Write the structure tokens for this entry.
Amino acid sequence: MADIKQVFNDEVRRLARKEVKLAVVPLLKLVAEQKQMIRELKRELAAVKKDMPVKEEPVQIIEVAEDDDKKYRLNAAGIIRIRTKLDLTQGKFAALLGVSTHTVSMWELDKVSPRTNMKKRICQLRTMGKRELKKHLEMLENTESEKQQ
């Protein structure tokens, strides 16, 4: 006669597999349906991306001369002084330069130093008047509002 413990364990395993299979089969069908939906959405997304116009480069208000080999010395206090002299917030100052507000904050805290091309742009801002900067800011705001529409 077979060992009753072994027979009992085999029967429990068989019944457990059967119950698990009954619980898993509907889930497998659901997963297959979701995978199909994901494939369809990816196709739609690819079609939409294909039809979208090419993203334009951000408008750079301040032009930098490439052949200028002049060395620019600029520190955190100088950046703050320029920004406050021009009566600009960090956000507006960042928008004029084409960087984030966080970047300007890090420059002013002297955590990081601006790269050479940014130093050139900042020094060019120093030579501009408030009226000219106001015109540049208005142009920048107009281009941003056109992009949102």
Summary: The chain has a mean pLDDT of 83. The helical segments are 4-51, 76-85, 90-97, 101-108, 116-127, 130-148.
